[in-house]
Amino acid sequence: MKKARTIWIAIIMLFLLAGCATQVDRVGPDEADDISGRWNDRDSRLVSEEMVDDMLQRGWLERHNARRDNNPTVIVGEIRNLSDEHISTNTFIRDIERELINSGRITFVADSGERDALRRERADQEAHALEDTRSLAGMELGADYMLTGTINTIRDVEGRTEVAYYQVNLALTSLTDNTRVWVGQKEIRKVIRRGLFRS
Amino acid sequence: MAVGRLAQVLLIGVVLLLGGCAGHQVQDRIDDRLRAGDTSGALEVVERLDSRRNQALYLLNRGMLLRMDGQLDASVEAFEDAKRQLGALEPISISETVADWALAETAGQYDSNVHERLFLHVTQMLNFLELGDLHAARVEALQIDLGLRRVDPSGGAAPHGGDAFARYLSGIVFEASGDRSDALIAYRRAAQRYEALEAPVPRDLQVSLLHMLDALDQTEERERWAERFGIEAVRARGEGTGQLVVVVHSGLGPRLGESSVAAQDPRSGQLYRVSLPAVRGRGDPSAAVTLAVAERAVEGERVESVHHALERWVGAQIPLLTARAVSRNVVRHQVTGQVRDESRGLGALLNVLGFLVDSADTRTWRTLPDSLWMSRAELAPGTYEPKLHIRRRAGGEQTIQLQEPVEILEGGLTVRSVFVR
Q1: Which of A105, A167, B153, B158 has its CA 20 to 30 A from that of B189?
Q2: The pLDDT of residue B1
Q3: CATH 3.30.70.120 given to domain B3-420
């Protein structure tokens, strides 16, 4: 009898342990845990910071400033996600834009998608806004350089351990003569050890 | 044993019993709504499946119903949630494993088998393609490859099928992305898997494989495949054209029923039961599919059978499921015998309840189609209003006009899905 009771109590305990309540802790952006091992907001921020640092330290910027008396104007082209994860390239692009604009050494212009919306707004102003408050067409700033890039992954899996290798390549190309003025590469390597058991 | 404690055990049994019944009733009601053409109603019903035990099943069904309802963005979200949920279920749960062997097959959380996970990626890939997001579709193709390499590191094959069409569609996505070597690998693997699964290699796949071998100058291999397919020459892909792919989701996916053997010990009255799942196909309503576009008729082909994949999986599971059923009968025999020594009434109650609870796990992703058909047409850039002619297995023909005009772009891939019940 005692044995049967023990068996049943053990089974019930296992069921009870399996149902833990959800807990939410608010953490700062730098404290974010890497829960799944996938590309996350922290990776996006770190990579953009480091790549922008690298970009701003290279000679192309000085050469541009020597030729012209204004900051280089950059437009973001396509950043292709060639990885095996759904990575929000928009978030990554925004991180890069923020870092470059905040550096005060680059002028950014809206990309093709945003430009359409801005042009529609200007056309709307032509019809509806007071004359002296209208933004005029034909005053857009042309970009000097286009930033393009790719995000790739290579994965190696053995049993419950997985090594994920992320490689981000960015290139800045002159729109005047198609010369590459800067190429940057940043790698992140993550080792993910998956647990054997769950509750 | 105190009556209170035993009551707890009995309560768990009743909850399991009712939980199993409720899940089935919800799935039956979803089927009814779908047969009546009421996808919105099915979406309301599926919310009743939302429980910890059935979380993955709920998300899979919700994702598919949203897709049928044309809510592709919401469907993408539900399927991504399903992927996360299934990922969280990968480690072994000790409590669920013990319960499988000692209590009931239906005690654990619903976890998908390999072919369902493949269909999840395939369906998500179709969602992205229909949304015009080729990059995201390519991510799904890579996830399929990664998943298959985890299951079978040397061959990258799914043990019970479902991978042939996944590879084939991956090839189409790679080709449209300009990744010709990846497209070749995917087409080649797809052809090999159709052959290994003893299914006909779709004609379009044969031609696509030969095109890719031509493009990459793989002359010897091309000759081997051409001979195997019995193709002498293939027309080169047209310059400046785009492709239209129409995928027909034909019928409703198979259900899992139960096949039970029960016996009673005449001396003690102890009840024994072995319940195993049995596949109950609901049939493919389509016998032939033809895509009519730009005054051309393109024959469609059956590219995947969900029914056959489920049959192969269940067949492979039977030895393990039988062993677990026997184990549960042994545990029940021991526990009931000891409870009966203390109280004949409680022993009898436990005996009956244990007998009733011990049923096969018949949960499966039932909103999948029975089969998938596909037509692929190469068209000049422009806007088209394609029609689909379906010859029904039960007799008669059905013509379906695609909901919106289709725009074909040069070098582009346009994908549409049609649901036939």
Answers
A1: A167
A2: 47
A3: no
